[in-house]
Design goal:
Structural class: alpha+beta
Largest sheet: 11 strands, antiparallel
Radius of gyration: 40 Å
Strand content: 25-35%
CATH topology of the largest domain: Double-stranded beta-helix
Order of helices and strands: HHHHHEEEHEEEEHEEEEEHEE
Number of strands: 14
Shape: elongated
Distance between the termini: 96 Å
CATH class of the largest domain: Alpha Beta
CATH architecture of the largest domain: 4-Layer Sandwich
Mean pLDDT: 77
Number of domains: 2
Length: 323
C-alpha cells in the first residue's frame, strides 16, 4: 500500500539530496508516480525546478541503487553474501595479449647482455661476438651479422696423426673455422647448450656434442683402449685443453656425477656427454651368445670411470653403440 505523503516531509527529503530510489522506497510509490507528483509541486511553486534537476527523470534504476538481493542458502549452508556484493567482487576481464607483431618482436628479440665472447640467447642458441677465429661444428651456423668467413677444416690442417685417428674412429665431429668480425649465431638441432670456461683445464667431450671452442684451445681425438678393434665407427671423444671458451650440447638438462676412488661410475656410452681430463674410462663389455641371438639386456657395452673427477650424462641415448 502507498504511504500517505506529507508534502512538507517530501520537500525536505528532496532538498536534503535524497535520490529517486530512496524516495520510492520510503514512500512506497513507483518512480513514475513520484516524478509526476514532484512536477505538480514545482507547478504549485512548492519546489524549484533546480531542486529536482539533479534527479534524471525516467532513468533506469542503477545496480548500485537497487536493494541488495540475498540468495537463498543452499542445503549445504551456501554463501549468504548479497548478490550485489558478489557481483562487485567478481574479477573484471582486463584482456589478454593482443598478439601483435610488435609484441612478438619484443618478446623474442636478441638481448645483448655483453657477457663476452660466448653468450647464450636462451639455452638453445649460442651467440659468439667474434673478433678473430673460432672453431664450430659444421652446419651449426644459423645466422650472422658482420664480415665472417667460413672455411671447412682442411684434410691435413691438424696433422697426419689426427687424420689417421679420424679414419680409425669414424670421427663424426667435422669442424668449420669461422674468421672475421661480427656476431655469429649457432645451434644444433634444438639441443641445450652449456658454456664452459677452461683455465688451464682439460675435458673430454663426445665428438658429436662439441658445438664451438676458441682457437686458443688445443684439441685432439682420443682413442679408447680396445675400442677401435671392437666396433667400426666407435665412440668419438675429443680432448679439449688449455684456456678459453668451449660450448657443448646435450639433449635436455645434463646431469653431472662426481667420481671418487671409493665410488666409480659406470655409464651408457650413448648417454655420456663429457668427463674431466683426469679420468681415463675403460670400456666394459658383457657380450654373450644371448647378445648375438638378440636376447641380451641391451646394456652390453658400458663405460667405467675410476679415479677423481666428474662425468656428464644426458637423459637421452644417441645411437653410437648397439648392445
Amino acid at each position: 500500500m502507498p504511504r500517505r505523503i506529507s508534502i512538507h516531509e517530501l520537500t525536505s527529503d528532496v532538498r536534503s539530496g535524497m535520490g529517486y530510489s530512496a524516495l520510492s522506497r520510503k514512500y512506497r510509490v513507483s518512480r513514475q508516480k513520484l516524478e509526476e507528483f514532484l512536477q505538480k509541486l514545482v507547478a504549485k511553486g512548492l519546489l524549484q525546478e533546480s531542486e529536482i534537476a539533479g534527479i534524471a527523470p525516467h532513468a533506469p534504476t542503477a545496480i548500485m541503487d537497487a536493494p541488495p538481493q540475498v540468495a537463498p542458502p543452499s542445503r549445504g549452508g551456501g554463501d549468504p553474501t548479497p548478490a550485489r556484493s558478489r557481483l562487485r567482487a567478481a574479477p573484471r576481464r582486463t584482456g589478454g595479449p593482443s598478439y601483435t607483431i610488435a609484441e612478438f618482436v619484443k618478446a623474442t628479440e636478441q638481448n645483448d647482455r655483453a657477457e663476452g665472447l660466448f653468450e647464450l640467447e636462451g639455452d638453445r642458441v649460442l651467440e659468439i661476438n667474434l673478433d678473430g677465429t673460432v672453431w664450430t661444428k659444421m652446419g651449426s651456423m644459423i645466422a650472422y651479422v658482420g664480415i665472417i668467413k667460413f672455411t671447412r677444416e682442411g684434410v691435413l690442417e691438424h696433422g697426419v696423426g689426427k687424420l689417421f685417428k679420424k679414419a680409425v674412429s669414424g670421427e663424426g665431429a667435422r669442424l668449420t673455422k669461422a674468421e672475421g668480425k661480427g656476431t655469429l649465431y649457432l645451434a644444433d638441432s634444438g639441443k641445450k647448450i652449456s658454456v664452459l670456461k677452461l683455465d688451464n683445464d682439460s675435458i673430454y667431450v663426445n665428438g658429436n656434442d662439441v658445438l664451438a671452442f676458441e682457437d686458443s684451445i688445443q684439441w685432439d681425438i682420443k682413442l679408447m683402449k680396445k675400442i677401435s678393434s671392437m666396433l667400426a665407427g666407435g665412440l668419438t671423444n675429443i680432448r679439449l685443453e688449455g684456456t678459453g671458451m668451449v660450448a657443448v650440447t646435450t639433449h635436455h638438462q645434463p646431469l653431472t656425477l662426481r667420481v671418487t676412488p671409493e665410488r666409480p661410475i659406470v655409464t651408457d656410452p650413448n648417454a655420456t656427454v663429457a668427463w674431466s681430463g683426469s679420468l681415463e674410462p675403460q670400456l666394459k663389455t658383457d657380450v654373450s651368445v644371448r647378445t648375438f641371438l638378440g636376447r641380451g639386456s641391451g646394456e652390453s657395452i658400458q663405460m667405467r670411470f675410476e679415479g677423481t673427477g666428474f662425468v656428464v650424462i644426458q637423459p637421452f641415448e644417441e645411437t653410437y653403440f648397439q648392445g
